[in-house]
Amino acid sequence: MDERRWNRAVVTGGAGFLGSHLCERLLSEGSEVWCVDNLVTGSRANVTHLEEHPGFTCVEADVTGPGCLEAIPGPVDLVLHLACPASPADYLRLPIQTLEAGSTGTRNCLELARRDGARFLLASTSEVYGDPLEHPQREEYWGNVNPVGPRSVYDESKRFAEALVTAYRRTHGTDTSIVRIFNTYGPRMRAGDGRAVPTFIRQALDGEPLTVAGDGGQTRSLTYVDDTVDGIVALAAAAFPGPVNIGSCEETTMLDLARRIVDLTGSASTIRFVDRPADDPARRRPDTSTARRELAWSPRVDCAEGLKRTVEWFARSALL
Ligand code: NAD
After folding, report:
1. Which residue has the CA at smallest separation from atom 33 of ligand 1?
2. CATH class of the domain whose range is 8-185+224-249+284-300
């Protein structure tokens, strides 16, 4: 793995769940960090603890706006583009903004990287594989996405963003990379963001029934946030363009996840089965051989440990 250090890094979506952990990591490694976020799904509270750091600046701006990144002083040497609504509840509520974050937002971020000859990284997603017909998913798999289904605003936004990033690399020689992140969880997720881990934890802590979609047999490969951040930082430092899958190979059914969370919280909650959302993928597990080969990356935190840390964080936050 390359050892590369950044003088000035820009993290769009830096006040979100994943972005705030990345800002923290880059600051701890000595980079100056500019977080750009319009707080549509993120929160200033996620970065309050960083505000005192002399190397940290948080700019409240929409990355899809004209000239929105011009105020960032150069030269910037790393642009990490994470700004985009990411939970199904958020992108279904913000469909046009989600498509704009992947299109105009990605273009504005690419232009910033091009201005200064910076390394660029797009936070893409396992959702580009849609409801996959191939299992596990390799980067070579083109996916199975319904272009007019409700989830398409997110899936196609990221697919378009990947195409745009690739066009900048081919046309302008921009130093780009694409990471396809699989379901990541951990501290600082919003309890009400609709994703399975925070939803189940909140329901268990409140003694409510855990709402499992369908028969709960659908799987995800849940990745603890520290491992995802390691993978993103490793890809940024490498000369590799990707795309690279970053995700755990530990596949869990949603019913098993719900039961584990009930056990971990010591809750008396029951399980309630609810309708499965349209186009919900049945199975999800990455083939991570590219990440192992190119980045020497593999996850270090297993689901038992990651869930324990996350439950502890939610339980502590509920007391504040
Ligand atoms: P999040 O909602 O917590 O973070 C997204 C951040 O982007 C928020 O702070 C939001 O306010 C900001 N944002 C959205 N649109 C913006 C805009 N137009 N201008 C400026 N800021 C904007 O979600 P997250 O889970 O932290 O996801 C971060 C990124 O990682 C997203 O791009 C997401 O698609 C990608 N990703 C996440 C996961 C995951 O499991 N967490 C999986 C795959 C991909």
Report:
1. 86
2. alpha beta
Calpha distance 318→320 (Å, rounded): 6
- What is the per-residue pLDDT across 91-119, written as a single tens digit (0 to 9) for each? 999 999 999 999 999 999 999 999 999 99
Task: Please tell me the residue having the least CA distance from ligand 1 atom 16.
Answer: 83
**Nearest partner of 309 among 180, 201, 193, judged by Cα:** 201
The rounded Å distance from CA 266 to ligand 1 centre is 31
**Residue with the two structure tokens 């003088």:** 7
Residue 165 is inside which H or E element, if any? Answer: helix 152-172
Q: Where are the domains of the chain?
A: 8-185+224-249+284-300
Q: Is 154 a catalytic residue?
A: yes
pTM here? Answer: 0.96
Helices then strands, each counted (H, E), the chain: 10, 13
| Residue 24 C-alpha from the chain's centroid | 15
